[in-house]
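User: I'm curious whether this sequence folds into something compact or stays loose and floppy. Could you predict its structure so I can see for myself?
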Amino acid sequence: MAHPQTIGVVLAGGLATRMGGGDKSSIRIGGSTILERVIACLAPQCSRLIVNANGEAAHFSATGLAVVADSVPDRPGPLAGILAGLDWTARHAPEIAWVVSAPSDCPFLPHDLVARLHHARIEAGTPLACARSGGRRHPVVALWPVALREDLRNALVSEGVHKVEQWSTPYGVAFAEWPDTPIDPFFNVNTPEEAAEAVRMAAPHPGEL
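Assistant: Here's the prediction. I'll summarize afterward.
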């Protein structure tokens, strides 16, 4: 399924408090770290990938990807990482009008993510699209037009809007649907227990998940 050129932003700017402050993206699932799995999934779907991270650029040097910090202070959440991706795209790839975001703690992302998000927003006639599985919305696994970056900056800086859905809903958001069985493609690892569960989920599917 063809789709417009899209920059991928791996959101790795969180504090991982439920992991005791550890690095979630370096947890190994099925022989690879979660970060390696996310990059391997998104790279073929995107024109380029970047990582959004704060104060940890050296940690991601092995990826060979540009590491972009939030431009909004005090780590206000994933919207700041999305804005960082939009700003980077406007500066470094001005010919590209779209950014897709995904967190660095989702080891089972789908290989048709970007194409289906584009298809959903085109079919719905909306500027934004996000993933949904089993009826559950995943607001940060989403497609963003670079044209809205100044609107987003104003919302973060002047209006104090930090919740993804609060900002995105008024513009119109289409949903791309996936089943959540046998494995939810947007299962994310926030706790040691979830990391162990991800390992169990991947074990019966070597080389597939």
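Summary: The two ends are 21 Å apart (CA to CA). The longest helix spans residues 78-92.
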